Amino acid sequence: MSSDRILNFAIRFGFLILLAGLVLYFSVFANGFASPRSAVFILQSVAITGILALGVTCTLVVDGFDLSIGSVATSALMLSAYAMVVLELSAGMAILMCLLMGAGVGLVNGLLIVKFKVPDLLATLGMMFLLIGLQRIPTQGNSIATGMALPDGSTAEGSFSPAFLWFGRERLDLVLENLLPVPVVVFLVIAVAIWVFLDFTRHGRLMYAIGSNQKAAALVGAPVSRNKIAAYMISGVMASIGGILLAARLGRGDIASGTNLLLDSVAAALIGFAVLGAARPNAFGTAIGALFVGILLQGLTMMNAPYYTQDFVKGAVLVIALVFTFYLSSRRGAGAG
């Protein structure tokens, strides 16, 4: 009985203990890590990744997976830049175009998976490659900035609206004086909204039921197709919001930005399985997973760890998190049986 209690404790709190140990280690050995400014920088670095990861979480809930989130985010970055710099549209119109684009991509992904029976990994992988190519066509693969030469020989005379840049660069006087960036506030609001939606609304519970047993959910009358499509549309919108915030922070349409968005977001969503022994996709765990990735990268950077070791460390942590989730949970289930 004592061993069962130890096992249950390890499953439920092991990852949080690992997170606390990581914070303690970096606080001792990385000079300046424990400062408020470092904490704010960590939150800022994980905000965009966390928003994308929350979108992935919604697809994982319905037993799906979205590989197109990184390309949707970079497409939103390029689209917003093109709308304001080349087409000289307002910030509001640029944001609306990006949100509609994200929802449209999610709708197409959902229809491919639900109506045309394309496996989710293949459908979203195909969409990823399509968007990577599509976002480069209008500028022939060049980044977008004021004064750039356009393919027709003209010059882009528009610029990023100050109202748009506010979302990526402004710091609010909330908890720490003039230190809390707007993207962090957006991330926290979205995280709470997704958590409430998945855990406390009828549609969220239906999504979990579909992910757990799709056939059983269909037999009791649940709108399976509609909810699965909705999950991919939410994922697309979340990715487009991440792209908007990234564009607002950079102030240009950088074609090379967002390279690691997909991998970091997926890692955060999967690490979330291990938080509090949930063993399932959940918004709270995903937010903690994104924070974990940010703390890890910030600590390694402040300790001058070579950049090429960071992906290895992230992979190792992900494997450990999945062991916490699945191997230990299977042992608990075997013991109960």
From TrEMBL:
Keywords: Cell membrane, Membrane, Transmembrane, Transmembrane helix. GO terms for molecular function: transmembrane transporter activity. GO terms for cellular component: plasma membrane. The chain crosses the membrane at residues 6-28, 40-62, 68-87, 94-114, 120-138, 179-198, 229-248, 260-277, 283-300, 312-329. The keyword Transmembrane applies. It comes from the Bacteria. It is found in: Cell membrane. Pfam families: BPD_transp_2. InterPro entries: ABC_transp_permease. The keyword ATP-binding does not apply. Its main location: membrane. It is a multi-pass membrane protein. This is Monosaccharide ABC transporter membrane protein, CUT2 family.
